[in-house]
Amino acid sequence: MRGYMTLRLQNSAHLKNMHLNLAVHFDKIARDMEQISSGQRINRSSDDVTGRGMADGLQAETRVLGQGSRSIQQSYQMLQIADTALDEIGQILNRMKALAVQSSSSTINDEQRLATNSEFQHLKDEMTRMAESARYNGFSLLTSETEQITLQAGPSGSSNDLVEFSLGDMRASGPAIQLDTVSVDVQGSSIKALDYIDAAAESVIRVRSQIGALQNRFELSLDATNSIIERVQGVESSIRDADLAQTVSNLARSQIMSQTATNLAKEADIDMDGLLSLLR
Fold first, then answer.
1. Are the CB atoms for 271 and 18 separated by under 8 Å?
2. To which H or E segment does residue 205 belong?
3. Which residues of the chain have pLDDT under 50?
4. 46: which residues sit within 8 A by CB, 6+ positions away?
5. Which H or E element spans position 32?
6. Greatest CA span in the chain, whole angstroms?
7. How far, in Å, CA of 280 to CA of 275, rounded?
8. 3-state DSSP call for residue 253?
9. Gap between the Cα atoms of 104 and 117, Å rounded
């Protein structure tokens, strides 16, 4: 049996409440479906003003960290080019030392020393060519004593994340090698050449050790940066992304409520039809 309800043609409060509730439920359904389709809890600033600001800030930080990670990788690759060239220079020095030892021995004559010296001089030219060919994006790595190389070792632009150093001039005429005037054309100069070659080899070892230390630092920095990116993305996801289980549950609830409100509105229409029949 239906309860007593006042019926009015104008300013019907219960009909207005029904329409208001229907609008609210339909709006909730639309928002829930938007969250499910996008996978995000925050699709506009009005969804969560504070959360949107935090999520956008974390997203910007992730992008900066990602660029920092790429810079570290590029720095590592640049050092790898220099290390490869220095490895070849080291091999050249080993051959030059073997020629100097051979030429310093009394078992060969001066004519044979001239032939040995010819190869020795060609090796010096190849050493210079190798040092000059060690370039990265147009920048020469092994031909300057004074020009500083600046590498990105971290995700920010602070002094702690920047490394400045110089690999030196590794050409045969450079101050680190100093073999420009060395020859093995006579026995005496061949003996002296051994000391110069040993000093040059020590310079190559020193620079390669510096490169190795920097590469180890970059590997650690890259691992740490990638771990930080993963953590920051996780925090952003917890703020921005939708809980699909909760959202689907909310959608089902809103659909049930909207269906109930629709049925009640139909009942109200039946009552209104009854009122209008009294006026005929």
1. no
2. helix 187-240
3. 1, 3-5, 7, 9, 270, 275-276, 278-279
4. none
5. helix 13-38
6. 138
7. 10
8. helix
9. 11
